[in-house]
Amino acid sequence: MNREQAYEILAEMTKTDSLLRHARSVELVMQAFARHFGEDEEQFAVTGLLHDADYEMYPDQHPGVIVEKLKAMGEAAIAHAIAGHYTRWNVARNTLLDKCIVAADEMTGFIIAAALIRPTKIEGMNAKSVMKKFKTKTFAATVDREEVAKGAEMLGWELEQLVEFIIPVLEANKEELDLV
Predict the structure, then answer these.
(1) What's the confidence (pLDDT) of residue 82?
(2) Alpha carbon distance 143, 155 (integer Å)
(3) Average pLDDT of the chain to the nearest whole number
(4) How far from 97 is each of 24, 32, 51, 117, CA to CA, in Å?
């Protein structure tokens, strides 16, 4: 599956700007992970783009609808990674693709939330300021801190290392992601 096909699926199921921005931001982070680890950039990017594609239309079935659609299209690896992009769903994470989507999802959303309250948004943001917000339980309270920590751990990274990896990816795309 290429990115254009994936975007068509996303656009059919997702209408809100915030969820579309989240999909795009996770796509960019996943693509950066692929480059970093020498993996298939398109596969990683598509996984990031589609990981929450069914959330808006089918919240009670998420991620089942998109997973089944991808399986039917012969995209087993992407479907499996999306099926396990939240650790409490008890899906085995055997591949780097499976682990990277967990590491990218919640932390990317958290960093964007932290950027949106800053006067300069993502510009000049550093890991120290993100980690300070991370310790404030009332900030972005819906972000599962345990899930974020597990994502970093799956990669063998410290949490701050994950933040340091994601910030420049978002900053490089700040105009598109409306983080200016």
Answers:
(1) 98
(2) 19
(3) 97
(4) 17, 12, 12, 31
Contacts of 87 (CB under 8 A, 6+ apart): 93, 102, 147, 150
- Which positions ≥6 away from 99 have C-beta within 8 Å? 93, 151, 154, 155
Candidates 1.10.287, 1.10.3470, 1.10.150, 1.10.3210; correct CATH number of 3-172? 1.10.3210
Give the chain's end-to-end CA distance (angstroms, integer): 32
Query: What does the alpha-carbon distance between residue 165 and residue 19 come to, in Å, rounded to a whole number?
Result: 22
Name the pLDDT band for 144 (thresholds 50, 70, 90). Answer: very high
Q: What amino acid is encoded at 76 in this protein?
A: A
| pLDDT (average), residues 94-105 | 98
What six digits make up the tokens of 152? 């970093």
Q: How confident is the model at residue 174 (pLDDT cuts 50, 70, 90)?
A: very high
Question: What pLDDT digit, counting tens, does each position of 39-70 carry?
Answer: 999 999 999 999 999 999 999 999 999 999 99
Residue 27 CA to residue 108 CA, distance in Å, equals 10
What's the confidence (pLDDT) of residue 161? Answer: 98
Tokens 């959303």: give the residue: 109
Q: Domains of the chain: which residue ranges? A: 3-172
